[in-house]
User: What shape does this take?
Amino acid sequence: MMKQNPNSINVKAIIYSTLWLCLSLISTTSQASLPDFTELVEETSPSVVNIATVKHSNQYGSMSERYNIPQQVPDLFRHFFGQPGQGRGQSPQQEKSSLGSGFIISADGYILTNNHVVHGADEIIVRLSDRRELEARLIGADVRADLALLKVQATGLPRVELGDSDKLKVGEWVLAIGSPFGFDYSVTAGIVSAKGRSLPNESYVPFIQTDVAINPGNSGGPLFNLEGEVVGINSQIYTRSGGFMGVSFAIPISVAIDVAEQLKDKGKVSRGWLGVVIQEVNKDLAESFGLAQAKGALVAQLVPGSPAELGGLQSGDIITAFNGQEINLSSDLPHRVGRIKPGSKAKLNIVRNGKSKVITLKIGALPDGDGQKLGVIPQKPAEQENRLGIVVSALSAQQERNYGPGVVVSKVINGRAGAMAGLVQGDVISMIYGERIASLADFNRIVAALPSKRSVPMQIVRRGSAMFIPLRMSE
Assistant: This one.
């Protein structure tokens, strides 16, 4: 039998003890780095409310009507509309209700929630944390921001503390409190995944993206930071299944409070407006405009008589900053313009013909409606020889009234520069390489003088919408 050296045993014991201590310290450190939400929830949950809406109906209606779903909401960005009152067995004369969340922003009873939570409701019932149920009055609603301001008759209510959503950082912990599937005061937590997200039909809200679990009934509920301050309103999810898939969106509280104050004072919301059609600046367009970096909002079209046109903006200008705030993506611009008070002055940093410039203009008020759509009127082409491999013809009088000066593409030859740039029959070419086209002679002169072996910007109008495309000249 072999005898063990006592010194060897002591060394092993010391090593094991050291490893155990290190693992314990690592475990303790990991646990200490995770936030404890218990105190935050205790302090903030009394200011969160459950909202039930009742709609009187004498017919079944469509699914969208039964769930109060606006028709324009895309399938992948469905709001959370709660559950219908009695399902399929509901009688035509019975009432139907939906559930959502909200939070108290003043001690005298003002409450913020999503517009889609109370849309079309005949009655709105707010249930407080002490189980009181109060009937709420709709002060005003804003469809564009999906926000609604409610008022209940009460005083001394527990209100939330409002934070600064502009100071949020990606990766920061956030927490949601709401009533998913009718389960009151459910708490979920996660992190900020991204900021300034633009969603379809929601261009005036720079959404906060999180991975906080949000489900039907969470709509209108608050999103808290670790200081217990509200930084957003939980509003939408991205889903292919109809349920939470790890991507949710909240309206920044800075946007929500501005809307709430306007609804309270005027009953409606006014937003700033430039009157431009913009597009993203990709790598090819950046090269064609002589930019070192693909960034900014490219002005593709100006609305006649708009603040942008009156203020001196031109098609082909690239807006790189608005009132000192950088414009990296084209989607950054509507958010910034929309929050400016109509009638006030704004400073725009632009790049025009490769040179930086600053212009100041007066912001207008965003009009209702989407504007007029323009159509393409077919006509007989007049054959023209050119380096692009396309056939163009002069515009008719009606087309020129609709689009302004230019030429219309009637044929595209495969494999040539025009086809490679993506031109299609019916496109109206209005500008190439910074020069406007007023006639076929202008088009032929400009194309003949284009530089070889580089990209140049071309402005076209397609199905009524103006845009720029990069045109690469190989010869």
